[in-house]
Amino acid sequence: DSLEALFLPSTLKEIGNLAFEYCRSLRLFILPNEIDLSNTPSIMHGAAINQIVDGAITVRSNRRVYEWLIHHMDETPLHKLCYDSSVTSTKINIYLNENSADAALAVDTTHGMTPLHMLSMNPNAPADAIGALFDVNMEAAFRVDNQGKTAIDYAREYNVGGMIAMMNVLCNHRSAEHENISRRKRRRMI
User: Fold this and answer.
1) H or E segment at 174?
2) CA 117 to chain centre
3) What is the number of helices (H) and of strands (E) in the chain?
4) Please, what sign has the CA dihedral across residues 108, 134, 101, 129?
5) Mind giving me the DSSP string for 36-78?
6) pTM of the model
């Protein structure tokens, strides 16, 4: 009952029937685009994610739930990238260079999460990827989601290496700020 998020590899092709039955805490779950669920009657019966989907879809059916689980993050591609089990700092930097760094502040409507929340929850995310995204916009680390948690809270629970990377960026930022203040004071004295 404690499984809150599940990060499936994008290469996954099928899931067995009732694989996540009664995972009552499961609320963050994206199915890979190429998954075949044609022979799977139900994978989510009794899971918390069904309550989220019910709010988004009025006609309840397993096929609609599956489609929602595959596509509900399509509108927020950086979130989907941060959820990917094979995410890297290179992929994040390429995305941010091709798009806008403002994408790091985007909030998904389902969970109230920034991309940094998702990346911090991802146990497969390397620490340098979390540090890179955090460095782009530190403000995102202190934003709370619908559960009242910050990206730092999730990193502490799911990705300790990522939490250490965020702390390192904060320390470097503080050191740089301290150095700037010291330089300004020296200039005034001259």
Assistant:
1) helix 160-189
2) 5
3) 8, 2
4) negative
5) --TT-S-S-TT-HHHHHHHHH-SS--HHHHHHHHHHTTTT-HH
6) 0.74
Residue 73 has which token pair?
């993050």
Which residue(s) pair with 182 in the sheet? none
Q: How far apart are CA 49 and CA 96, in angstroms?
A: 29
Tens digits of residue pLDDT in 8-57:
888 888 887 777 777 777 777 878 888 887 776 677 666 666 666 555 44
What is the Cα–Cα distance from 14 to 24, expressed in whole angstroms? 22
Give the distance, in angstroms, between the CA of residue 188 and the centroid of all CA atoms in the same chain: 45
Distances (CA, A) of 2 to 6, 43, 48: 11, 17, 11
Question: ∠ CA(11), CA(156), CA(153), 5° rounding?
Answer: 100
Beta-carbon contacts of residue 58 (< 8 Å; ≥ 6 apart)? none
CB 21 within 8 A of CB 111: no
Tokens representing 57 are 């879809």
**In this structure, what are the phi and psi dihedrals at residue 12, rounded to the nearest 5 degrees?**
-60, 130
Instruction: Determine contact, residues 140/115, Cβ cutoff 8 Å.
Output: yes
CB atoms within 10 A of CB 48: 19
Please give the single-letter amino acid code of residue 4: E
